[in-house]
Here is the input.
Amino acid sequence: MQDYILEMKDITKTFPGVVALNKVSFSVRRGEIHALVGENGAGKSTLMKILNGVYQADSGEIHLNGERTVIRDTIDARKKGIGLIFQEFNLVNTLSVAENIYINRLKTRRGRVAWKEINRETQLLLDGFGFNFRATDKIEDLSAAQKQQVEIAKVLSYNAKLVVMDEPTSSLTTSEAEKLFGIIDRLRAEGITFVYISHKLDEIFRLCDTATVLRDGNIIETRETKDFTTEQIIERMVGRSVDMEYPRRNCPIGEVVLKVENITRTGVIRNISFELHKGEVLGIAGLVASGRTELAEAIFGAERYDGGTIEINGKKVQIHSTNDGKRHSIGLLTEDRKETGLVLSYDLIRNITITNLDKVKRGPFLSARLEQELATRHAKELSVKTPSMKQFAMNLSGGNQQKVVFAKWLFSDVDILILDEPTRGIDVGAKYEIYLLMNQLAAQGKSIIMISSELPEVLGMSDRLIVLSGGEKVGELDRDHATAEAVMALAVKN
Amino acid sequence: MVLAIVLITIFASTVRPAFLSGRNITNILRAYSTIGIASIGMAYAIIGGGMDLSIGSTISLSAVVAKLIINATAVDTVSPAWAAIAVLFVGIAIGAVIGGINGSIMAIVNGRMGESFIITFAMQIVVGAVAQAVVQGMFQAAAYKSGLFKQFGIGFVPVVFFVGVAVVMQLILMKTKFGRCLYFLGANMSAAKMAGIRIRQVRLLSHMLCGMCAGLAGVLVVSRVNSASVLQGQNYELDAMVCVAVGGTSMAGGSGSVGKTVLGVLVIGFLLTALNVLGVQSNEQLIVRGVVIIVAVILDTINKQAKLREVAR
Amino acid sequence: MQRSSGIRRFARENAVLLLFILFILLMISVKPSFVRISNIKNVLIDASIYGVAAIAMTIAIITGAFDLSLSSNFAWAQIFFCYLLNLWGRTPLGILAAFAVMALTCTLFGAVNGIVVVFGKIPPFIATLGMMTAIKGWCLLFTDGNMISTSNAFITMMGKGTFLGISYLTYIFAAIVLLASYVMRYTRYGRNLYATGGNLSAAKLSGINVNFSRFSIFAILGLSAGIAGAMFVCLMRAGSVLYGTDLSLTCVAATVVGGTPLTGGRGSVRRTVGGILLIYVLYKGLAFLGLQGYYNTMIRGIVLLLVVSFDAFMTRNESSRK
Here is the structure.
């Protein structure tokens, strides 16, 4: 009889308009490291948030240690021995490590907070792990890896028996990740069970005993990792055979439109240089926090850069603001379209025309008719599905929202488009449409830089790609030489 | 909103029939024209996601300077026409400068609502002191008695100014690039930045326009009331905020309009006059204003939450 | 990932402080006679009164809240205290009762602020601005715009009396500073305030009752206005709407000068003591240099403006701003 520390049975959870989890059954054996794999939006985070008491399931049961329980909230979850380490840390930056670990349960002696004791015990805890920071250090002074270590220490100080880690290595360098694996192995030996959410299959094969694949809110399969292969997992994640058809593109690649030399921003990116040609799709690959978004922001003018030059069509330009970037024909589609790409409470017309209001002027004033006409035309060209242009942006699906963002930039006739995770959070059908759109734009002579964490996508769509790691450019590959292994090998270089 | 005006009017006129007279209504319109102009300026600041608490002092300063100039240029207690026009420009200029300072600071520190509160609050104190300085140190000539300047304050003229300003400002807001950018800035500052909007310029300009409205209002106040003291502008910022809020413009920015603010001014105008008529003293009215603002914002928050919930369905 | 180096952090925390000290040294060099015992004593007394409120404001800012209505609440405290003293002040018990009742009303005003902000979900700025006006109106109503004065002997003694050459009022201030300091550093309640101000969602997820924290802070602000008002009456033996209109902003400035940023989650009460003292030295110095009335106010305003602008500038990239 298997000893299951956790059994989640037939969990269903719906949000307005979408079924996040559909009768999901998920069981974890005591003492194992169990991987939870799936694409964006497959339901992994939702399932774990239910386990952690952040959400309540609509139906289904949770059994802990063989007993049926209800997890009311995060405090309850913690009491029951469940610890969740988020992707975004849940720490108070202005306070110390010790205070964060003991938050809301500071030890007191006769009513007075016993700082000495708290700091001492925390230090012991940290030393036990071999962490290299002190209990009295402030969180804001720590690196991402160290912050994660604080989260681990925190979770264990609550005597968690089941620890869930959500994309734990996304902000870590290779050596830091190795250290993390060492910690996990050691803790497993002490009897702690892990659920490990990650899309990095090589990590999963290294660390985990079992893997469960989720897709679109359904459990697809659970199998021991020794019986699984990479292709099989990918196939179950994606629902089709490995080679997704990326639309072919065959357009001429022209002269250099953008030349970036030695772009540096202290502490973030260093000496990055590359060229972009007309009609080309240049991919930028790299692990999270390798500096890709920061590079894009520097080129576009959203953030400053401390060194280096930018040349557009052979002429050196100064880009100090997003307005500069726009005027120099650069447009940035941000990572987070809901926060920074669109104003959700405005309608589609307003969202689209904002980048080039001069175009809808008649005389000195904006013309509502012209606005409607032009915006509608752009939206139609991109096949944005919406009942009306007056629809609020927040009501559109992810894919359509992204199309509106594209429309917004096309409205200002930019020639260089930087796409930061353009298909994140978009279903497969819409993704394909975006790829087609990219090809269309390239054929029209526009130049595209594509930043993506989805390796297949970058490999499938780019004519060339550069790889960033730790804020530096570590390699450049052209289409024929770009394979997943080659890119990964570069991306994990430190 | 219109409903509110009607209700108040009905209520007040049942108590004192004279409320509904044409004369009374004219009085209300005239008296609240200056608050109206100041409110329109405030609306700009609020729509842009900020706030301007310094308009009270701006009004005081511009009022004081206006009175000074008029008095100094009066010939036989008749104020010449050119002086009247000049004073208008001076008042607006003063407002522009103050607003410009506000806007510059806001632009430099990348400010949002919180910063705009504190910074303009401090400006209020500084400008108030400047106004006092101007009054103290200068020679007060004999008061003027007639002339073009006086005309500004009589009959429908203030209302004409009010309407004029409202129309121009609404036009700018709705129909110009700047206005549209201002809305975006208030709705979502990061999205505005990422869309390539020149945030600093927009902020600066919005605060300048707000100041200019206040400056103009100050000049008109002097004309109407025929006196100017440093306390002239007191509470104007609160009143303006109340009018904007009551009119339905969200305090968070990104929505609303001049038209709505005008309605708000009318509601407040009718409300406060009705209170007067009913015998409520000015001190109590002060309390009422404070409470009204809180209520208006609560209603606005509830409204917003309801709208979000509805849309998400 | 970046770390803020030790020097950078030191500079950020103490920049305004150092600027202030520099300016004061400048003033002293211009008029050395400035440094006189009587001046120092005066500064101490004035600073003690406003200081009580400044301490509360600092705690509020650390928690991520803000209160503009302190000025009006302070005025109300003065007025009501004088009024009650004139009624009941003949017996020691009466004086105590007068203080208690007045402090209660002030705390209640603060509690209303708290309810509106926490449960009405209105930004503290707007809510307290509204309250400020409402309370001011109430004060005007109560006094018809007049000043209320009292000639209570005990009160006069409290105001004039000194122990070891230092005014009683300063002792009261010192006691409050010590108490606040202890609470903020050594009680769970105080630490929870830091957490609430530092990262509201993290605090909530950790089980801290953030609603209670934020609500209580407004009540405390109200109480502090009451105490400061009572102290004021001891000194001036009168109360009016005209006194203390710059209280809110001075308290904010004292907080910022002391090195507590307006973004919340960090800072200390003790530093604000330095802040308020420096501000009052500045004020005194300005008066001493011959600047009176409106020029004085103008420079005060400009100083305040520069101080808060500087803080806003230094924190312009932090995301936790209101």
About this structure: Residues 167 and 232 of chain A are 21 Å apart (CA to CA). The mean pLDDT of chain A is 85. The radius of gyration of chain A is 25 Å. The longest helix of chain A spans residues 174-189.
